[in-house]
Design brief:
Blueprint: H1 31-34, H2 53-56, H3 66-69, H4 88-100, H5 111-122, H6 125-136, E1 144-148, E2 151-153, E3 155-157, E4 162-164, E5 170-172, E6 178-181, H7 184-188, E7 196-200, H8 204-212, H9 224-227, H10 248-251, H11 253-256
Parallel strand pairs: 1-7
Antiparallel strand pairs: 2-5, 3-4, 6-7
Helix pairs in contact: 4-5, 4-6
């Protein structure tokens, strides 16, 4: 998607203090609470074990709550990675790499990786272990519907992600992957059960499958070499769908003709 930050004319929706609700939840939160980086909204507490304090609230002033961006049970969103079910050792290593500078980003002007690096520099080893143990114990679930299509809804930049414009106007997909929330308001209120639609060019799923297994006729190494014959992960190496925004791992092939393992934060 290539969204590096908010557009110059982007304005947050004002909060009138009205409690917001989510489907199948008895909870109620305000828009201001949803924007609090030290308060993870937990719409569905029965979906997961109790949140460790570092996940629920972080530690002011530098360690934001893990559950704010990655959501209470780790599905993530278009602006970052899903981390539910990742090996604890993998999570610990990524935090160490963010802290040391070994892990960087190709778009340093983006706010999400800036926040991630700031958090990694301030968080303690014990807090990392707590968060890693929590997220690694969760079962990841499918939250993205992949739709092969030649045309997509016209979109706008809504902060750090794309959202469909009102109406029914469309445009050619033109080799892109366009990912949008199925319910924008529900996503903005950080409901971990939010779903997304990933529009991809026709033939992308099969092309991604061919690249992930036999290796794309020598253009890239098969993903099975590192991630196992069934792509279920090996030791600290996670399942491919969790390396980044799930479908993008395999479907970047639709635009690039080769597969690159990468994490988008």
């Amino acid at each position: 998607m290539g969204v590096c930050g908010e557009p110059p004319d982007f304005k947050l929706k004002p909060d009138d203090g009205t409690p917001q609700h989510a489907p199948d939840s008895a909870a109620a939160f305000t828009v201001t609470q949803a924007r609090d980086l030290f308060f993870a909204l937990d719409w569905h507490p029965s979906d997961h074990p109790p949140l460790p304090d570092i996940v629920a609230h972080g530690r002011k002033p530098d360690v934001m709550a893990c559950g704010v961006c990655h959501r209470a049970d780790g599905p993530g969103g278009p602006e970052n990675a899903g981390i539910a079910g990742l090996p604890a050792q993998y999570i610990v290593q990524q935090m160490a790499d963010f802290k040391s500078g070994a892990r960087k980003t190709s778009v340093p002007q983006r706010i999400p990786p800036q926040l991630m690096i700031k958090t990694a520099k301030g968080i303690t080893d014990a807090e990392i272990e707590q968060a890693a143990a929590y997220f690694s114990g969760l079962k990841p679930r499918a939250v993205i519907e992949v739709v092969e299509t030649a045309t997509v809804p016209k979109t706008r930049v809504a902060g750090w992600f794309l959202a469909a414009l009102p109406g029914t106007e469309t445009e050619p997909i033109d080799g892109r992957i366009i990912e949008i929330p199925a319910d924008l308001e529900r996503f903005e209120m950080r409901d971990a059960r939010s779903h997304f639609i990933a529009y991809v060019p026709p033939g992308s799923v099969e092309k991604g499958r061919q690249l992930a297994t036999p290796g794309g006729n020598g253009k890239s190494a098969p993903c099975t070499i590192c991630h196992g014959p069934e792509l279920n992960g090996v030791g600290p190496i996670p399942q491919p769908p969790q390396l980044s925004i799930e479908e993008r791992f395999a479907l970047d092939a639709s635009a690039n003709g080769s597969l690159e393992c990468r994490t988008i934060d």
